[in-house]
Amino acid sequence: MPAAVADSAILIGENGEITLACLPQSAGTARRIVAAHLAHWGIDALVDDAGVVVSELVANAATHTGGTRLGLTVALEHDRTVRIAVRDCSRSLPHRFSDSADQEHGRGIAVIESLSTSWGVTVLPIGKVVWARLHPGRVTGRHPQAIERCADRVTTAVEGETR
């Protein structure tokens, strides 16, 4: 992991997976980790989209799994595609709900789908990995209302936990 991220709550496994608490406020740590990797690889153009994607992945794990830990991996693939993945303890698959601008919850997968070149789920014997791929040639920002609401939700969750 690039040296720009220091957090005592981070554990790094042998496979490079970073373990974080399965809480909404871990989204901020995850964004910093992803941003540090992108800066290290010289792909700063993806910071905004990747930050929203990893925030949604962490928020979904924290909201829907009931686990205490999640695993984060950030990998650079051969064509400069960045793969962001979050592992959790639940085998329940994520659902894509209506994409209504009035809907306050349930749009995370639509946001991930909008900002990534591909996304998917790998079911494990215990839990699953939800992943998304982003490419610097496709910086989108195509879903501004959902992104804005996602950022507000994550900020509210973090502020609510720190009071």
Shape: globular
CATH fold naming: Heat Shock Protein 90
Strand order of the largest sheet: 1-2-3-4-6-5
**What's the number of structural domains?**
1
Distance between the termini: 30 Å
Topology pattern, helix = H, strand = E: EEHHEEHEEH
Oligomer: single chain
Q: What is the tally of helical segments?
A: 4
Which range does the strand content fall in? 15-25%
CATH architecture: 2-Layer Sandwich
Biggest beta sheet summary: 6 strands, antiparallel
Residue windows where pLDDT falls under 50 for at least 5 positions: 1-8, 143-147, 149-163
At the fourth level of CATH, the homologous superfamily is Histidine kinase-like ATPase, C-terminal domain
Average pLDDT taken over every residue: 79
Radius of gyration: 15 Å
**What structural category do the secondary elements indicate?**
alpha+beta
Number of distinct beta strands: 6
The level 1 CATH classification is Alpha Beta
Helical amount: 25-40%
Q: Would you kindly provide a written description of the structure presented here, covering whatever features stand out?
A:
The model is unreliable at 1-8, 143-147 and 149-163 (pLDDT under 50). The protein has one domain (11-162): Heat Shock Protein 90, CATH 3.30.565. It is globular, with a radius of gyration of 15 Å. It is α+β, with helices and mostly antiparallel strands and 163 residues long. It contains four helices and six strands, in the order ββααββαββα. The protein has a six-stranded antiparallel beta sheet with strand order 1-2-3-4-6-5, with helices on one face. α1 packs antiparallel against α2 (47-64) and α2 (47-64) runs antiparallel to α3. The longest helix is centred in the C-terminal third of the chain and has 19 residues, at 144-162. The protein starts with 10 loop residues before the first strand and ends with a helix.
